[in-house]
Each structure stands twice: as structure tokens, then as C-alpha cells.
Amino acid sequence: MNHIYIENSSANRAMEVLQLKNVSKVYTLGEERVTAIDKINISIKKGDFVALVGPSGSGKSTAMNLVGCLDIATTGEIYLSEVNIQKLTESDLAQIRGKKIGFIFQTFNLIPSLDALENVALPMMFQNVPRDIRIKRAKALLEQVGLKERMYHRPNQLSGGQRQRVAIARALVNDPEIILADEPTGNLDTKTGDEIMDILKELHKKGRTIILVTHNPDLTKLANKVFTLKDGKIVGA
Amino acid sequence: MFTDYFLLSLKSIRHRKLRSWLTVIGIVIGVAAIISLITLSRSLQGTIEDQFESFGANRILISAKGFQGPGTLSQGLTMDDVETIEKISGFEYVIPGIFRSSEVNFKGQTSFTLVGGIPSQYYEEFYTDTGVDIVDGRNVKEGEKYVAIIGSRVATEMFDKEVHVGDKIEMGHQEYRVVGILQEVGNAQDDSQISIPLDAARELFDEEDAVDLIIAQVKVTDEIPQLQEKIEKELEQERDDTNFQVVTAAQILEQIGQVLGIMQIVLVGIAAISLIVGAIGIMNSMYTSVLERTKEIGIMKAIGARNKDILILFIIESGLIGLVGGALGVLIGAALAYAVGPLSQNAGFTIHITLEPLVLLFGLAFAFVVGIIAGILPAWQASRLKPIDALRYE
Ligand SMILES: Nc1ncnc2c1ncn2[C@@H]1O[C@H](COP(=O)(O)OP(=O)(O)O)[C@@H](O)[C@H]1O
Ligand SMILES: [Mg+2]
After folding, report:
1. Which residues of B are less than 8 Å from A125 in CB distance?
2. A122–B11: do the CB atoms touch at under 8 Å?
3. Is residue B60 within 8 Å of B191, Cβ to Cβ?
4. Which domain holds residue A63?
5. Could you say which residues of chain A have pLDDT below 50?
6. Which atom of ligand 1 is nearest to A62's Cα?
7. What is the CATH number of the domain that holds A108?
8. What is the ipTM of this complex?
9. Domain tally for chain A?
10. Would the pTM of this model clear 0.80, i.e. be above it?
11. Does residue A164 lie in a domain region?
12. In a 10 Å sphere around its CB, with 0-12 CB exposed, 13-18 middle and 19+ buried, how is residue B110 labelled?
């Protein structure tokens, strides 16, 4: 893991990559209303390594999903590189997910019918990147996460750690502005988890903006900003 | 761009081999049924039309009404009726014929078959106009009496030993020399017939005056309806009864066409039902497939797939399944028609199977369209799932 492939286009410009202003998310289950996120304000700059901590059910995943445009906030405003995503159409949001966000999930979320190479290349297909470039980029990224020999393996032929590496390569493939990692080591043993964290560390060093959700206090040491959530509110920053 | 989606769909189909095949089978059955049934019924119609064409479009047939045979002579036709018709102008010839069953002996073996008798002088014209060739030997000549022309089945199948030109067959204690063998017509009755001169037939059946069938060959096709009417009028006047019927080849063809048409509707109906069942099968499979892959849809949306990308992917997938099912169905359907066709021979009829490219193409196109239509609804639903809901689905 000597050199992680990054080519962050506007590397050293200090600007707000992400801003949450008074964002709330309320789930309605019949009569019951669950406030998963309660008027939170967060501001994240380019190159930040942000840790989001808090007990289970405190709203961490909900916050990540809102930032990742997978869900829409009930109230408040979210700015992604100064664009208010609350006002965008589903099709525009899909474009943003593909181009500006790199999601790394706890459960890897790879497509089972595709091999590692195809999984990594897939996000570029939705951005109309020509096939030869897709293959080239995907191969380079897989090589850099140490999976050169496993490119043509399908997810069920890979270990948990290897799958998460594929997922990381996939998250990087469209050169996103933010990497969102929701408990990326939650399904891995300690040793493998450490290796994944090393990769994230390396990405941060090279200038990537990362938001990491974790339970592990050790991991928060890596971060330059830590937000603690409790019952949907930020209780410590 | 489209190629990428196509390849992605293909991989997805191949990944779920068993389920995909189960879906394909539904379509295969429907298309195979429709192709084989349509091909069979159209081939049957074609075969019958061919036969009647050879039978002669310019013929009017006159026979006694209802059952005709021994004991009903009083109602039957006689040579008087032949004369009545001969007096009407507009015919090339009017042939009296006797057609009855007889015992036939050949080399010690006995069989039973239809024996026809028409005057020896008409043989040449009759078979020329009928369009049936003599493949071996020659035709009956004017003035001959104890000679016979035999159908192809009489020659090859009726007796253990094959009957050749020059052989003697025996009917009613009288020997007949076989002078000619007819080409195969395709239906058992005609191919099993023995034809002898009318004089001989009168002796054989002990009938001096009776006529079973009068064949009137018209000169001008357009005059058939008027001539038919005239025959009916004259015969009724002369005989003072209506115990006879006058039909044209066209009328017979029309009747058969009607029966075949009904049969075709029934067959196509059955095939359509099986195709609908196949379509419902695809739809069901597509729904299950979408449900099973809800999470996959969520993943694709999370990495940038738009609603329309998902929609296109699923539609291509179901279209492909339809196309594969259609192609297999067309192949199997055609093979079925070819397999069933010869079976008809046992029923005394040879259906000549002709595959029509348009029918095959229709089968293929239909399956493709059914596949797409069956896929649209679940695909549309899949595409509209909220990414987070799809992702959370287990
Ligand atoms: N789709 C949903 N419908 C209803 N309630 C939900 C939904 N998703 C999350 N919640 C609720 O919102 C709160 C925050 O959940 P979540 O963001 O998953 O917490 P965390 O990731 O910190 O464990 C919890 O109380 C959870 O039950
Ligand atoms: Mg969570």
C-alpha cells in the first residue's frame, strides 16, 4: 500500500465540501414519529478526516445516508460543494452519488453477478465513461488495493477483507469529493479491519475528504474532527 | 452504451441460470405450441387445396343423395340421367362411373378395396384432367375390358408381394391384367383404388344400368354456376324427384375450408392461451427477480444509476429472456410440426409440412414483445424504489 491512487482535482483549495444546516430527519411509522436526526449543523472542509461516533441508534447512518444523497432530509439544508441537494431531482441526485460521493458500506454491497473488475468499473458506466478507460482505471485501482491477482473473482470467491478492498476501489473510481464509510470494519476481524483502516489513513494523507462512522475509540484518533451523536443530536465536536 | 447495458443484463441472466431457464421454458412452450399448431393447420389446408386443385376445378359431380349402394337402386342414378346431362351443351365430356368395394385376390392373398369403373374411352382424358400421372406402365385404351390401373398403395402395401405392371389380379372370378400404376396422390382412399373399364365393372357388380357418380367436365370455368343450375333443373324434370345432388369442386373446397378455418381458430386459441400462460410466467419471474434483487438495485443507485438506467437494464433482461424463449420455441415448434406431419399418414392422409418464414418470425417477435411487456411493470417499479429503501432490503 505504498501509493494509493488519487488524483483529487482541486486538492489544496480550502473550502466547505459539505455543510449541514439545521438538518432533521423524521421517520413516520404509522402514528409514531421517530426523529433520527435532530437539527444538526456540520461543516466539513476539503481534506478533513471526520469521525462520526455515538451509540447504536443515535442517527449516524441516517446522517451518512442524507449526505450520500441516498435519502432526503425532512427539514434543513445540505450543501455539497455549495450545491443545495435538497432541491435536486432524483436523476440529478443519482449523478451526484455517482460523481461526488464514494460510499463504503459495512456489508460491502458488491453486485454478486459481477467480478471484482466489473464491480469497480460499474460506477463509471453510469457516467458514460468509455469502456477501455473504465477497464484501465478499475485495474489500476484494484492493483493499488492489492487485488491484482483477484480481479476476475466474483464477490463470493473473495474474503471479507478483499471484498471491502473492492468496495474501496469502487468508491474511488469516479474520483469523488467525499468518501463516506459507514462502519467499514464492522464485519471484519481486527487484523483485516486494521488493514482497511490503513488504506483509509493513506487516502486521507493524500488529500481525500473522508467521513467515517465508527464505534471504535481507537479509530477516532485518526480523525482531525470528531462529532458525537446522541439521540439524533450532536453532543460533542 | 447500449452494449454495456446488454452485457450487464446478460451477466445477470447467466448468474441466475436456473430461474432464467424456468422463465424461458414458459415462453418456449407457448411459442412452440403456436408455431407447431399454425404450421400444421396451414400445411393441412395447403395439402387439401392441392388435392382439390388436382381433382379439377372444372368438374361438376352428380351423385344420388344420401347413402348409395345395393338395395337403394330405385333412388340411384342411371344411364338415363347421363343422357339428360349430355343433352345440355357446354361440357367437354360426361362420364358415368361406378365406385364400389370389391374383393381382390393377388397371388393367393385376398384384400378388400374400392374399385372404380369409367368407360375405357375416357381414361386418357380423365387422368390428364385430374392431373394424376401414370408412373409405371400405360393408361387403359379404348375398347379394352379386363385390364386395371392401380393406385400406389395397391401396388406396394395392399399385398405381401408387390404388384407390378403385367401382373394379374382377380376380382369376382375374373382376371385383370394390371397395365398401369398411378403416382401417389397422398390420401389413402385414392391411393388404394383400382380402376377398370365400365363394362368390366358392370359385370363385376352385376349392374346393368346403375351409375354411382356422373363426372361432367365443363368447357368454360365461368359457366360452372349456370351449368350446375341447369343440371339440377333438367334432372328434376326428367326424374320427377330430387334424390340427387350436384356439387362443384369449388363448393367442396369451400366446405372443407370452413371446417379447417374453425379448426385453425381452435388450435390458435389453444396456442394463444399457452402463450398467455407463458407471458404470466415471465411476469411472475420478473417480479420475483426484481424482489430478489432489490438490494442490488439499491447498490446500483448508490453508485450512480439513474431510474432510467435501472429501467433499461430490467427491460433488456426480460426482452432477452423472451427472445431466447422465442428462438427455442420456434425451433421446437417447427420440429414438432415435422414430427407430427408424417403421423397423419397412418390416418390415411399425408400432410406436406411447409414452414412459413412469416409465421416463424411472428413467433420470435411475439415472444420478444411479450418478454418486454412482462418486464416493463416490475422494471418500472424497481426503478422507482428509493435508493435507501432498496439498500436496506434484505
Ligand atoms: N427507515 C427507518 N424507518 C424508521 N425508523 C428508522 C429508519 N431508519 C432508522 N430509523 C431509526 O432512526 C434512528 C437512527 O438510526 P440509525 O441512523 O440507523 O442509527 P445508527 O446508525 O447510529 O445506529 C433509530 O432509532 C432507528 O430506529
Ligand atoms: Mg448505523
Report:
1. 4, 8
2. no
3. no
4. 46-72+89-236
5. 1-13
6. 17
7. 3.40.50.300
8. 0.91
9. 1
10. no
11. yes
12. exposed
